[in-house]
Amino acid sequence: MMHELLEPNALPAVFRFIDLSGVILNGILGGLIARQKNFDIVGFVVLALMTATAGGILRDLMIQNGPPFALTDPYYIWMACLGAAIAWFFKFEGKWSHRFLVVADAIVLGIWSATGAAKALENHLGFIPALLLGCMTAVGGSMIRDISVGRTPAVFGGNRLYALPALAAAFTQASLVRFVDLNPVLAMLFSMCVGAGFCLLAYWRVWQLPVVGKQRSLTERIGVLRRR
């Protein structure tokens, strides 16, 4: 079984399975935003679809190698709707539910960063485009979702690290395939772990990138140095 999964022609099947796993998890996350906003079932489905498929659709449109997977494979739409239904019927309240959502979000980030970079390389794009498409696949859906509900996208700052773990996963995938010549399936699994692990570590350690509002100006810094 493991030998079959490591065959080069097994990449599309593994890619699809991993991608669909991310779709259902992100469908749940999108549905929970709809629950917070007190939306009806249409809002649940729309936000789930945006969160679960928009990043992949943007990736496939930029690669321009046929229609996006989410529009040609019916399971993508159904899995996103299933995620919306789960969020509709379950409130995900309490400590363990919160932990599940944090872990699910990290796993999705790792999944889509790795699959985005893998698909870019599979279509003979370069190293840098693979990084960009990996990050876009991971954060594109959540950005569109946040804008749709009138929120500043979380990836823009003031929150735990999100873009950097996505970049780390995409970088790992592209490096292992391009420079180490590792089996793409193994590279994808390892890159997913890197992205998810980095994201969870950033959440646990409350790591954030510096933002302008929290930084002292140059004049203030000079004044502090003079007083010393």
TrEMBL record:
GO CC annotations, alphabetized: plasma membrane
Keyword hit for Transmembrane: yes
UniProt cross-references to InterPro entries, sorted A to Z: Gly_transporter
Record-annotated membrane-spanning stretches: 13-34, 41-63, 75-92, 99-118, 124-141, 161-180, 186-206
One Pfam family hit: Gly_transporter
Domain Glycine transporter: 17-90, 103-172
Compartments in which it is found: Cell membrane
Keywords: Cell membrane, Membrane, Transmembrane, Transmembrane helix
Keyword tRNA processing applies: no
Membrane topology: Multi-pass membrane protein
PANTHER family linked to this entry: INNER MEMBRANE PROTEIN (PTHR30506), UPF0126 INNER MEMBRANE PROTEIN YADS-RELATED (PTHR30506:SF3)
Similarity comment: Belongs to the UPF0126 family.
The protein's name in its UniProt record: Glycine transporter domain-containing protein
